[in-house]
Specification:
The chain is an all-beta fold. It has one helix and 19 strands. The two termini are 31 Å apart. 42% of the residues are buried.
Length: 228
């Protein structure tokens, strides 16, 4: 598994960490095209956008580099008591006959965009800085999805990680850890994702992972730490 620090930090937004209200008349629009493995346009694909805000503290990756980890816009923040995922109705659109889509967003910020043909075939672009009215993101190439596994550890805390909530930030992917701290996500799109974990007053160290298409990707261990 390769960690992509540059991708974890890519497109650092100028508006992240703020709730920016954008008038409907000037609401930003993300445009792009969904293509298959051979580059052909794919019609009638569901495309959705998931908003983010920046976490307050950069994290250190296993390779020694730092990264800014993005949280769900609704707040995966135990200090606020929020552990909810993106709302059940994120901005969405379907591709036209040329594979093109246009997503109208609720405001400026940072977004993940996901295109889904089936559980086994998806496309993903992460951390898109939407600071202008129109943001083209180019082609999104469909690829086979992957299984993502990892482990939460309890190095400085008593108790068990059993039942800890584990999320891929800015997405609909969530699962729970077992008594040994192991967790597993199915049908994860290829690309860069941020994994977060919470249990009571503990938070798993944020992990940025590059998910390869198909097969299985293993994340580095995430120690559970007390929320400061």
């Amino acid at each position: 598994m390769a960690l992509m620090a540059a991708a974890c930090q890519a497109n650092t937004p100028t508006v992240a960490g703020q709730d920016v209200a954008t008038p409907a008349a000037t609401a930003p629009v993300v445009t792009g095209r969904v293509v298959g493995t051979s580059g052909q346009a794919v019609a009638d694909v569901l495309v959705e956008a998931f908003g983010h805000r920046l976490d307050r503290t950069p994290v250190t990756l296993p390779n020694g580099q730092t990264a800014l980890i993005f949280l769900d816009v609704l707040g995966l923040d135990p200090l606020r008591g929020g552990r909810t995922l993106q709302s059940s109705a994120p901005p969405s659109a379907r591709t036209d006959g040329e594979g093109r889509f246009s997503l109208q967003l609720p405001g400026a910020g940072v977004y993940n965009v996901e295109a889904v043909v089936s559980p086994a075939e998806k496309a993903w672009k992460s951390k898109i800085d939407v600071a202008s009215v129109s943001v083209p993101i180019g082609d999104m190439a469909l690829a086979a999805t992957s299984v993502l596994t990892g482990r939460l550890t309890m190095p400085d805390n008593p108790g068990s990680p059993d039942g800890a909530e584990v999320y891929i930030a800015g997405s609909v992917y969530r699962t729970t850890a077992d008594a040994s701290g192991q967790y597993r996500f199915e049908n994860v799109p290829a690309g860069t994702v941020d994994v977060m974990a919470f249990k009571e007053n503990l938070r798993g160290k944020a992990v940025c992972i590059s998910v390869a298409p198909g097969g299985q990707t293993a994340a580095p261990d995430a120690p559970m730490q007390a929320v400061p």
